[in-house]
Design a protein that fits this description.
The protein has 260 residues and is α+β, with helices and mostly antiparallel strands. It folds into two domains: 3-61 and 249-256, no CATH class; 74-247. 65% of the residues lie in helices and 10% in strands. It has ten helices and four strands. Strands 1, 2, 3 and 4 form a four-stranded antiparallel beta sheet that branches. Strand 2 (30-32) and strand 3 form a beta hairpin. The two termini are 21 Å apart.
């Protein structure tokens, strides 16, 4: 979005702004019948108080509402992925790789249950990071190419959000259920003189997992995901859920648009 275009959209958006409100102009638009529409939210104390769908050219109320049905779900999924995923995707992979490498060099049957558990968590964490990074790549593509959002982009956002939710559940549930294995593994690592070869941060990482056993089990139980014992089925069920994510809020916002 050019600086001129941004200024023009904000100038138009200010016509519908109320006192003490701030404006949030979303950067990626939607094209309907060749017409480009942008979403603007009005905020007060960080809470959304109103919205508008704006075009720099001649606008159609029907087209603007149609655009809102793509703009709103894409941006709420965008916010969900970034808010929930940024910290989780940034977990240091060395917390898992370092102990695995130590155990690879020291074959010991007593270490195998812990090895298998940590290896499974590493696999889930790598999938989590890849899913998050792939969505960030989509955002960079949208920005660099300055193109409009498509139904395919919305599908990608829904798939990414569903995958991240399922993977996070799998990680927390596996860790919560595996604390006994971790406790035995730490003792086996100490007996094999491998525990002290981990960094202090890595040791604390696993010790905190043991302390948070009850919390992790409670968290996995209360996670707002559709649970299923089969991973692929669980993913499909949560994708269906993401396709209607905050649909009621979208309909309410569409009915109350300040413009057009």
């Amino acid at each position: 979005m050019s600086v001129f275009q941004q200024m023009s959209l904000k100038r138009q958006g200010r016509k519908h702004k109320q006192f003490f409100e701030k404006m949030q102009l979303y950067p990626y638009p939607v094209q309907i019948n060749g017409q480009t529409y942008f979403l603007i939210n009005y905020l007060k104390a960080k809470a959304t108080t109103g919205s508008a769908v704006i075009s720099l050219d001649q606008e159609s109320a029907d087209e603007a509402k149609k655009a809102h049905r793509l703009l709103f779900p894409f941006y709420v999924l965008h916010e969900k992925i970034n808010t929930e995923g940024r910290m989780r995707a940034g977990i240091n992979i060395d917390f898992f790789r370092s102990p695995l490498e130590l155990m690879d060099a020291n074959k010991n049957a007593s270490l195998k249950p812990g090895y298998d558990l940590i290896d499974s968590i590493l696999e889930l964490q790598l999938k989590y990071r890849k899913t998050y990074d792939n969505f960030q790549s989509l955002l960079k593509e949208l920005e660099s190419e300055e193109r409009s959002l498509t139904d395919k982009d919305l599908q990608t956002a829904a798939e990414s959000a569903a995958m991240l939710d399922v993977l996070q559940y799998q990680i927390v549930h596996t860790l919560g259920a595996g604390t006994k294995t971790l406790r035995n593994w730490i003792e086996a690592m100490k007996q094999a003189d491998l525990w002290e070869k981990l960094t202090k941060a890595q040791q604390v990482f696993y010790q905190q997992m043991l302390q948070n056993e009850e919390l992790m089990l409670k968290e996995s139980k209360n996670m707002p995901v559709v649970k299923h014992e089969n991973f692929d089925k669980m993913l499909k069920l949560n994708l269906d859920k993401m396709k209607s994510y905050k649909r009621k809020e979208q309909q309410e916002e569409e009915a109350a648009l300040r413009h057009p």
